[in-house]
Amino acid sequence: MKLTVLAGLAPFVVLGGAYPIIGDVVNCRSGPGTSYDVKRTYKEGQDVKLTCQTPGEVINGVKLWDKTTDGCYVSDYYVKTGTSDYVASKCGSSSGSCAAPRSNQATVDLISEFEGFRASVYTDPTGNPTVGYGHLCSNSKCSDVKYSIPLSKTDGKKLLADDMRPKEDCITKMTSDEVTLNLNQYGALVSWAFNMGCGAAEDSSLIKRLNKGENPNALITDELPKWVHGGGEVLPGLVRRRDAEVALAKTATTAKALPVKC
């Protein structure tokens, strides 16, 4: 918490890793934002314990949200943690209690189909050294790549799977614990976020509706085809990609992705 905001409040004592609530009645929600459903409320002075923290909707200048042991999220603005920085592990990080699921091969194959492949290092339109399925290298020789260059397509897909981890993390973090997705549904959303960006995904009506409990396949079928515009025009490549993602989501599988089992 920012101490300037709390200066006029009575002091609290933090005991046993628990932190006091400083608002009169504070809502704990299914995700890190006020658009998520209210799961329970806390009263002023009530102690809560945190399982992890994550960025979310900005509340009075504070972006951090705290996931409590009740399984819901409350803005860190209302929790006296003594700092505006992390006091618990980041939700969904490998150092936290749960890591994001890895995408299945069907998802890797779908993304690779639309990203295009280059076996040797080249300079992309923004001037960055690039190789494989759009991997941005740390230097002109791509010495950060652990596979031999020229890349084989097999190694290129392995590298792509590594590059997908941030999108897997963000899809996992932005979905509530009540959302149930199989690996194909999850993969469709990872592909979408890989293409459109995590920020766009997090602010989307798709994620908001998903977290409110709507049927994933019906929702994906309705929402993903809206993401086909570039420069104010419908792009045929995006139409094909959204169609492929919807088809993947609707492909039956018993392999579970979310919620994460720790």
From TrEMBL:
<keyword id="KW-0732">Signal</keyword>
<keyword id="KW-0929">Antimicrobial</keyword>
<dbReference type="InterPro" id="IPR051018">
    <property type="entry name" value="Bacteriophage_GH24"/>
</dbReference>
<dbReference type="InterPro" id="IPR023347">
    <property type="entry name" value="Lysozyme_dom_sf"/>
</dbReference>
<dbReference type="GO" id="GO:0042742">
    <property type="term" value="P:defense response to bacterium"/>
</dbReference>
<dbReference type="InterPro" id="IPR034690">
    <property type="entry name" value="Endolysin_T4_type"/>
</dbReference>
<dbReference type="InterPro" id="IPR033907">
    <property type="entry name" value="Endolysin_autolysin"/>
</dbReference>
<dbReference type="InterPro" id="IPR023346">
    <property type="entry name" value="Lysozyme-like_dom_sf"/>
</dbReference>
<dbReference type="GO" id="GO:0031640">
    <property type="term" value="P:killing of cells of another organism"/>
</dbReference>
<feature type="signal peptide">
    <location>
        <begin position="1"/>
        <end position="18"/>
    </location>
</feature>
<keyword id="KW-0326">Glycosidase</keyword>
<keyword id="KW-0081">Bacteriolytic enzyme</keyword>
<dbReference type="GO" id="GO:0016998">
    <property type="term" value="P:cell wall macromolecule catabolic process"/>
</dbReference>
<dbReference type="Pfam" id="PF00959">
    <property type="entry name" value="Phage_lysozyme"/>
</dbReference>
<dbReference type="GO" id="GO:0003796">
    <property type="term" value="F:lysozyme activity"/>
</dbReference>
<keyword id="KW-0378">Hydrolase</keyword>
<dbReference type="GO" id="GO:0009253">
    <property type="term" value="P:peptidoglycan catabolic process"/>
</dbReference>
<keyword id="KW-1035">Host cytoplasm</keyword>
<dbReference type="InterPro" id="IPR002196">
    <property type="entry name" value="Glyco_hydro_24"/>
</dbReference>
<protein>
    <submittedName>
        <fullName>Glycoside hydrolase family 24 protein</fullName>
    </submittedName>
</protein>
